[in-house]
Amino acid sequence: MKQNSDNSSLLRNEKALNQIQTHNLAVSTSSRSYIHAATSDNTRQAYQTDIRHFIQWGGLLPTTAGVIMRYLQQYADKLNSRTLVRRLTALKNWHLSQGFADPTAHPAVRKTLTGIKNVHGKPKDKALPITIEILITMANYFKQSDRMIDCRNNAILQIGFFGAFRRSELVALQWEHIRFLPEGIEILIPRSKTDQEGEGQLCAIPYGDEQLCPITTLIKWRDRSQCESGFVFRQITKGQQLKDNVIKSAQVSIIIKSAAKICQLPDAEFYSSHSLRRGFATEASKKGAPFSAIMRQGRWRHEGTVLGYIEEGKLFDTNAADIILKNKEG
How confident is the model at residue 307 (pLDDT cuts 50, 70, 90)? Predict the structure, then answer.
């Protein structure tokens, strides 16, 4: 009898995974596709991973506040509190989408999570910003190479930096989205993290100089790849053959991290795709760009995010301790 019960639970949980983000209602195929589209693919995949982790631990769906509290206690010192918050969000969304009460809303669950944050919380790992000096160093390394992959990577680096692109936006970029103008290029971003409804956003990037020029770098990649349609940044085989497949989002971080190591940058492992956006905001502010222009170029919604990048990059500018040290007399 116990074996049958276990099998029933496994089947129930497998069904639950397949139903994430889809209502258990008799709706048409087209309606289900719209419900499916209400959540981005990346978010949906993250939620599926979170639900699967809960089930593998031994949780059943639907679940209770007491079970969730035991789950949180089990992983309090093993998982980052931000990961646990996302796991609760996945569980909440599953229950609500299936018509069940939300067990994560119980006050005891929320207090348990707060306690875990207070006891085990730690600062969020942040990617180091790429400065102009570092950008030039990396670009020079790519330019000295004759390999097709380095020609592509230089374009990814410079377009990614001066367009303040998210990695998902970079890999989705297509030649049809780019207009070459006398002043530079205009890039249409059909959909992004801050534009889930697909209204479209524009990003303008001007010409540079001999040291850094995202436009000429992109043109060199277009000529080298002999492609003027489809995805801009495609995969390349070890034999330097261009494939039809677009690069994966994770590859952008690998490219940046690898370049940082080859260029022998300190703490090279702390660079990633996010270093491009952080670096752009920091450098633009240092060079006197208006805050509104920085926000517009990076398509940021929340001012606090950009202010955080800028303030971290100016810790030694007008530093109170520095003023004291340099004015010890009198």
Answer: confident
